[in-house]
Write a structure and sequence with these properties.
Layout (H helix, E strand, L loop, with lengths): L12 H4 L9 E10 L7 E3 L3 H9 L6 H15 L6 H11 L5 E5 L5 E3 L3 E7 L7 H4 L1 H5 L2 H24 L9 E3 L8 H12 L8 H11 L13 H5 L6 H11 L2 E7 L5 H12 L1 H6 L1 E7 L5 H16 L1 E3 L5 E3 L3 E5 L5 H13 L7 E5 L1 H4 L9 E10 L2 E4 L17 E5 L8 E5 L9 E5 L2 E2 L5 H8 L2
Helix pairs in contact: 3-4, 7-8, 7-15, 8-9, 12-14, 14-15
The protein binds (3E)-3-[(phenylamino)methylidene]oxan-2-one.
């Protein structure tokens, strides 16, 4: 980030005041991050921490200029001297501006049942007891890539189920394409959410997602795309010239995959009389695949009808599973209205009509990157242990007004339930003899583990 790079200013305002609020003699604050029961998906794909560590927390991040800037800003913001200038100057002088905390985390790409510990944070210098939870605000933002990866993986499972039942599950990598760049709030969010989706898939139009995987996870090209039309490139030819726009697509891209949005005026006419009519021979002669994109109407009904028309015009075969597969020169992509629920409705509708899921790919924008929030998987960061005057203390909350908000107590580890490699995870006290699956990723300003996108992808498919 060219700005928003002063760590003293990257927290909620109230956290500035917290250093005075812990009990006297507080030396260590130990906190953990979890998804408190999956209200939507029961398993979390943990992803994105390495971006926050590298972009915001690694190296000497505190300078005298930043402290001075924060001191002045907070004086105005609170109308009082609330800022912990001494605390930050201590980090600058004693630690060269490096953050005296250590962070353990699940390996990225790990799929963990909800209500397990995913990360722990603890200060490494008694004077910096206040720093652990100061970092909550930034660190909890990992909820976003983790929720995108979780939701994208759930959609992958749905599509895979239908491919297995009606076609070829080997096609899964390109079955859910990221259309979401325009629908998110800023390029950084596009990058983070886009990379999270690429943990599970390889199709994307979200270029920043590729950039994040390249810059922070050593993957030179994590996602792929193809030439494709938008409405302007079709409608600018004029209402009576849709056919010329379509012909132009075939001529400009004589080989390979090419996608054309086909609902500018009448998707059914375009399928029957343009693609399957005047241009049919050209489509069949093409050395590649034409991907027809409907983009309006009730998705299950429209997709079904488009498959029927294309089947009638271009022909189809019946595969060994008994499902119809279109002539290999034509396929369909539905990118309008796709979220977790709609995916299921469309796949169910086409299966009922005897069409293999092989015929269809999906695009998803808002449903993939924006239709979610921190409560989708109920992510939270809470203190569970402290050392006060040399004494360890278990720390937790348990509100009578919502027992679901109860937090864990003590120092935690994440273990496999049993010795088998794919065994599910459970959270136990640190004293448990089983090996901790959390690994130290950060200590005193240093990043301790460099995870690659390839290993993260492999973990997410374990
Ligand atoms: N892209 C597959 C390649 C991408 C897109 C991007 C918003 C594509 C469309 C397509 O076929 O049709 C952002 C809407 C569509």
């Amino acid at each position: 980030m060219r700005w928003l790079n002063n760590i003293c200013l990257l927290s909620d305002s109230y956290k500035i005041s917290h250093y005075k609020q812990y009990p006297p003699g507080t030396q260590r604050v130990y906190s953990y991050f979890e998804s408190r029961t999956g209200s939507v998906h029961p398993e979390i794909t943990f992803f994105g921490l390495q971006y926050w560590l590298r972009e915001y927390l690694a190296g000497p991040v505190v300078t005298q200029e930043k402290i001075d800037e924060a001191d002045a800003l907070y004086y105005q913001h609170f109308g009082n001297q609330v800022f912990n200038r001494q605390g930050w100057e201590y980090i600058l002088k004693q630690h060269g501006g490096r953050l005296p905390v250590e962070i353990k985390a699940a390996p990225e790409g790990t799929v963990v049942g909800s209500s397990n510990v995913l990360m722990t944070v603890e200060n490494t210098d008694d004077q910096a007891y206040w720093l652990t939870n100061f970092l909550e605000t930034l660190l909890v933002q990992v909820w976003y890539p983790s929720t995108v990866a979780t939701q994208s993986r759930a959609m992958k499972q749905i599509i895979t189920n239908y491919l297995t039942k009606t076609g070829d599950p080997g096609l899964i990598d390109f079955k859910l394409h990221d259309f979401g760049f325009r629908g998110v709030t800023c390029p950084e969010q596009a990058a983070i959410g886009g990379a999270a989706h690429l943990v599970n898939f390889k199709g994307t139009d979200n270029v920043p997602g590729i950039l994040l995987a390249r810059q922070f996870y050593h993957e030179s090209i994590a996602g792929f795309s193809i030439p494709a039309a938008e409405h302007s490139t079709i409608t600018s030819w004029g209402r009576d010239h849709e056919i010329d726009a379509c012909r132009n697509m075939l001529e400009q891209y004589p080989t390979g995959l090419v996608a054309t949005v086909s609902d500018s005026y009448d998707i059914f006419n375009c399928c029957a009389n343009i693609w399957g009519g005047v241009l049919k021979d050209q489509v069949l002669a093409r050395d590649g695949v034409l991907v027809v994109r409907p983009d309006s109407g009730d998705p299950p009904a429209v997709v079904n009808k488009v498959l029927e028309i294309l089947g009638e015009k271009f022909g189809y075969t019946v595969n060994s599973l008994g499902y119809k597969v279109l002539n290999p020169k034509v396929r369909v992509i539905q990118g309008d209205g796709i979220d977790f629920k709609m995916l299921q409705l469309i796949l169910d509708a086409i299966t009922q009509s005897g069409w293999s899921a092989d015929n269809l790919a999906f695009g998803s924008g808002g449903g993939l990157l924006q239709k979610l929030n921190r409560d989708t998987q109920r992510f939270a960061f809470k203190c569970s242990s402290a050392i006060i005057n040399g004494q360890h203390r278990d720390v937790y909350k348990q509100p009578i007004t919502d027992n679901g908000k109860k937090s864990k107590a003590g120092r935690l580890k994440l273990v496999r339930q049993d010795a088998s490699p794919g065994a599910s995870f459970t959270t136990v006290p640190e004293s448990d003899p089983r090996p901790d699956q959390l690994r130290f990723v950060f200590r005193n300003g240093e990043i301790l583990i460099d995870q690659t996108f390839a290993e993260i992808r492999a973990r997410a498919t374990e």
